[in-house]
Amino acid sequence: MGTTRIKVIDLSSSQKEIKTSRKHARLAPPAEDEVRLRRLAERAEKLAGVPKLEKEEKEKRHQKPQATDERLASSAADENLVVTEHAEGDAENIEPESAIPAKSPLSKVAGKKKSARRRGSNYEKAKMLVEDKLYSAQEAFELLPKTSFVKFDPSVEIHVAVSEKSIRGAVSFPYFTDEKKVKRYLVFADKKPQTDVKNVIFANEKTIEDLESGKLKPGKDFDTVVAGPKFMPSLTKVAKILGPRGMMPNPKNGTVTDNFEKFLQDSASASTQFKSDPSSPVVHIKIGKLSQKPEELSQNMKAIILAIGHSKIKKAQITSTMGPAIRVDTASL
Hints:
- This protein is an alpha+beta fold.
- Among the domains are: 121-179 and 271-333, CATH 3.30.190.20; 181-269, CATH 3.40.50.790.
- 35% of the residues lie in helices and 19% in strands.
- Strands 11-5-12-13 form a four-stranded antiparallel beta sheet, covered by helices on one side. It has a three-stranded parallel beta sheet with strand order 8-7-9. A two-stranded antiparallel ribbon has the order 1-2.
- Strand 3 (81-85) and strand 4 (92-96) form a beta hairpin.
- Helix 4 packs across helix 9.
- The chain is elongated, with a radius of gyration of 46 Å.
């Protein structure tokens, strides 16, 4: 038969474990009495030390505020005083901390948010030439070349603040120098109108299906949609396609009409279309180049003012590319 091994471990003794068997069982001396006496002595020492510990904790509690007060006072004194050495290194100057500006990350973030857009030195010099007043049209266009600092022939723009949000129309500038953009029309009519205008697509009910399927695309195949009042209920099906591109027919801009010949003739002769900004009631439009004569620019400005209407205009200002704005009195035109 095989032998079984038993491990005997005495946790209270420092001796290593002793391996024994049935044949020879060598056990370490138990010393049970010594272990019991040692445990009793440890308990007695613990019980005797409880009041001492309580006294020490009470003393520490009374001493802690004093220590903390002393530490706070010393740290405050160190923080309030900054020692700086002279260049010679012989004497020391003491300065209050309030004299040193405090820098915190929050102040940096706030400073970044409040910082305005920085302009170049050339712009600042040009802006100093413009007074804070209303200029007549003649004075404004005479001052405009002096405020330009670019090396190319800049464009001249007018920014008109209007009283209505949805303003759009077309204007023909008498002295506009840019090439006219070829316009393409989509006309919903019962009969094909007689006109000499080119790039006209005559549409009917079946054309709405082509718009829905994507065979006809706004901006790619046509730029303006004109419709008779009869077709407006059917065009509501494609309002999601035409509306975001600003091509949905609207009586305000004259694209809902029965007189197609007159609309096409007037629109084709007009060089530029304008509309107010979607985010604010302001019309931005280019009226020419700075190389043009002031009289020509003044006549172009007069044409856009008349197209919008004096009653709808709150204020206007002109500017060249990258130049400062000049406020203009529209009544002087």
